Fold this sequence. Notes:
Helix content is 5%, strand content 60%. With 680 residues, the protein is mainly beta.
Amino acid sequence: MIRRALAALVLLATVAPARAEEPERLEPVVVTATRTEQRLDEAPASVSVLTREDIGQAAGQSLDDLLRQVPGFSLFRRSSSIVSHPTTQGVSLRGIGPSGASRALVLLDGIPINDPFGGWVYWDRIPLQSVEQVEVVRGGGASVWGNYALGGVINIITRRPVERAALFEGSYGNNDTRNVDLLLTEVQGPFRLSLEGSHFATDGYQTVSAARRGTIDVDAGSRHTTFNGRIELQPSPDLSMFVRGTYYEESRDNGTPLQFNNTDAGSLAMGGRARTGDGSEWTATVFTDLEGFHSTFSSQALDRNSETLALDQRVPTTSVGAALTWSRTFGAHRVLAGTDFRWIDGETDERVYVAGAFARTRVAGGEQQIYGLFLQDVYTPHPRIELVGGLRADYWRAYDGFRRDTPSPAGIPARQTYSDIDRLAASPRLAMLFHAGPSTDLRASAYQGFRVPTINELYRVFRVRNDVTVANEHLKPERLTGGEVGVEQRVGPFQARATAFWNEVQDLVANVTLTNRLPDCPAGTTCRQRQNLDRARIRGVETELELRVGREWKVGGGYIYSDTEVIDAPPQRSLEGKRLAQVPRHGASLTVRYDNPALFTVAATARFVGRQFEDDLNTLPLGSYVLVDLFASRRIARWGEVFVAIENLLDTTYTTGRTSDGVVSIGAPFLVHGGVRLKY
Length: 680
């Protein structure tokens, strides 16, 4: 199979070249670090930017696969979102995240897209063709962004309609993997319109290691469809408005005949930006999400030759949010102030089965509200110095929590009403950027952040094979205190950045293994519960390097060392001194790219993920691995190119998960796909 793929690359290189203009290279402008526009080299934070060029020349077919080359980015599971369960797609930056909920805020054009019920991210709902730039800000971003921005912020910025155009991408690969995407844009006077439809499907692959595979193990396939629409009105340079709507549908086969999930989600957002005569700039957004999630889980025999249905869950969720910001420059001060709000209503409706027979229904859920106020001053007393001070206050309320079991099992009341919870959280931040010389920048910052427990963590039971994780309605918000220092050095075509960071998290939510079995854990399962750990420490170093040789060659790489440790856990003293689950100590990536539009483009990426542990007790190790990806493309005309991409070129078998009954999950094997991109 590898020989066939390499032969395809050779064939690609023989297609007749087309003349093409050299792309213009501009210094990226970022908006996420301070919630205002800045050049990348003026941002007082550790920021990585993936440009349209990076996105179009990557082998991966999903956004999370693309982001894995960024130091410190990881999901709860090592698997790609193409085959993994949605609830395992929570994102972590710098190792802050030992459970499925995200510890980083993910934005789409400045609007949160973390799942309102569980905090994870549906990465597949964002077609790569629609993405213009991705900004990854590592370090506490809660002072201006609030909840979830514990470890940082990821802002996905989509292409804006600037002309009448049609962009098409179609590809096909092994495992009957096919992808079709069509993006249309139109500009008429002050009106701008973009419409996009995307469909992806794959038969997938086996996710259980060959040594433990049984007759119930089948390929984990997936299918998803996305429709996006955006209308913009810009009657003057000082006023713009937009309306955006999205519909997303997915279905997944989760590796055995009785396990699957599907999601239907719709979102609507509208807002605007205005500049007034006094130099003020105002932005306002309102957004809502409606979602239905359905998932089944099974109990599997140790020989994996039979399974019985254990749980059937349906999760309807509704959320509404809004944000208002004001900014203005006063001499050397750029002042930003704003407020935001989020309301979430969700529940889990479950049918519980014992030995494959229906036993009872379980319904649990509640509502949440979060109100935030923030103020920030970016002060430039000297062209070489930038100082940032920010403060945010949030009020969180969880209310109307309930649970009903019909009929109720032993030890659980038929009806339970949970006490309302409310908390206040302050998130300050101080940062400094010093241009020590024409090619040297120094950065330092100190900050605090928070994350409130999701409705999922408070009320929903989760199961992976025979490991059951129980909800906990008494969870408290996580609080992070941290700091970092960094340096950036530029020498001709070479650029290097290094950052040392230190974080302590109070009341970190983790999946804790229990010695006593709770009523929600059936006999024969390993029982875990979401619990707050009093204190955990995350510290380390991250580096990024970039070298450009002429206009064609680019070499880029990154490395992170993340040392995590549970410092204090009074209810579970056995966890003290243990590493946080699902966090590798080492991670690195290296990309070498040759880009000559008149000839061809080739990019090779190698990625290393270090050893980590599946569980809180550090008894289920996941070994380290190296993956190599390859991408090649060639223009056939000014309006089109052909491409081929290979993931896991060496067909490496690597572990992505491990359960207490000894079942080992594995990642994607050798994958190849090729296709065309057209622009009219």
